[in-house]
């Protein structure tokens, strides 16, 4: 999980560099192409067929996951790296909020909702306010909202991946179709709206690096969840926020503010607490898949 967190942070840095040359949709498309190639090769070596009996479920999961990924990549291009990554990692807090909202809508609130779960949601949103405080200028607001929405969609994608797992779909197959969705979605948006940019050695190298880093980070995370404990993995996963923050300061001269640091700590703590409470209550924990 430590290696996965580091690889995802490095991927975020590569995305930020690539965003000066490519639109987010293009980056999503090429990231998906590389991911498909690697996963297809590994699946063939392991003898795991890619044909699926639940294509409609994969389509829904891919649509939500690709939208989350595109919004996240877009936010990385306009926000400090640590801020963009932190907003995407809000997914655990959003999942807790969905559980509370679902209980209220189904009338289970009268049976009692763990107050600690509600507290984690409040802490998470307090963290968002602190993180966004130094970047709420007009030029950053839209990117901040997109980063926040990426976390919402990522939370929905986690529930869908959980459902796929319960239907017996192997992780490699889920990631393969998610990557395929990225290729399709990125190609459509690029063709209809943003266009395609010319390649040079730097750009092509960054796109290849993003795909490789993302895919192997995914494999490391999958292995971590297969052999480790959910809560321990969730806690270690939030080191990705710290790695991204340090990379942002080192590579992009991102500004260091006490409010941003406090907000990141609040969101990380809320996410870990929410994961712990959900796992104790038998609710879906964070699923090892990107967005």
What does this 3D model show about the protein?
- This protein is mostly helical and 291 residues long.
- It has one domain (2-280).
- It has 12 helices and no strands.
- It has helices spanning 2-18, 24-46, 55-78, 81-88, 91-105, 115-132, 138-166, 171-194, 201-227, 230-237, 239-252, 258-280.
- Helix 4 runs antiparallel to helix 11.
- The radius of gyration is 18 Å and the shape is globular.
- The model has no long low-confidence stretch (mean pLDDT 85).
Q: What is the rounded distance between the termini? A: 16 Å
Tally of domains: 1
Number of distinct helices: 12
Taking the sheet with the most strands, its summary is: none
The secondary-structure element order is HHHHHHHHHHHH
Rounded mean pLDDT score: 85
Count the E strands: 0
Rounded radius of gyration (Å): 18 Å
Q: Helical amount among residues, as a percent range?
A: over 70%
Question: Characteristics of this structure?
Answer:
single chain, 291 residues, mainly alpha, 12 helices
Summarize this structure briefly.
Helix content is 79%, strand content 0%. By secondary structure, it is mainly α.
Give the helix/strand layout.
Elements: H1 2-18, H2 24-46, H3 55-78, H4 81-88, H5 91-105, H6 115-132, H7 138-166, H8 171-194, H9 201-227, H10 230-237, H11 239-252, H12 258-280
């Amino acid at each position: 999980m430590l290696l996965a967190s580091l690889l995802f942070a490095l991927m975020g840095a590569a995305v930020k560099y690539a965003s000066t040359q490519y639109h987010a949709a293009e980056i999503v498309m090429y990231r998906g192409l590389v991911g498909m190639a690697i996963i297809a090769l590994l699946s063939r070596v392991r003898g795991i067929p890619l044909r699926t009996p639940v294509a409609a479920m994969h389509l829904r999961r891919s649509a939500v996951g690709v939208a989350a990924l595109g919004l996240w990549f877009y936010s990385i291009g306009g926000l400090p790296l640590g801020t963009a990554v932190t907003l995407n990692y809000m997914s655990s807090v959003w999942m807790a909020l969905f559980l509370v909202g679902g209980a209220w809508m189904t009338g289970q609130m009268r049976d009692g909702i763990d107050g600690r779960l509600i507290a984690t949601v409040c802490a998470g949103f307090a963290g968002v306010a602190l993180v966004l405080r130094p970047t709420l200028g007009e030029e950053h607001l839209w990117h901040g909202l997109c980063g926040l929405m990426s976390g919402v969609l990522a939370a929905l994608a986690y529930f869908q991946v959980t459902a796929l797992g319960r239907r017996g779909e192997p992780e490699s197959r889920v990631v393969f179709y998610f990557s395929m969705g990225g290729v399709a979605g990125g190609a459509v948006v690029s063709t209809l709206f943003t266009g395609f940019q010319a390649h040079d050695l730097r750009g092509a190298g960054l796109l290849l690096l993003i795909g490789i880093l993302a895919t192997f980070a995914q494999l490391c995370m999958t292995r971590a969840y297969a052999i480790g404990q959910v809560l321990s993995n969730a806690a270690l996963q939030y080191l990705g926020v710290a790695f991204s923050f340090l990379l942002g300061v080192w590579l992009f001269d991102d500004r260091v503010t006490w409010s941003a640091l406090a907000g990141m700590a609040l969101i990380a703590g809320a996410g870990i607490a929410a994961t712990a409470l959900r796992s104790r209550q038998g609710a879906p924990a964070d699923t090892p898949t990107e967005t």
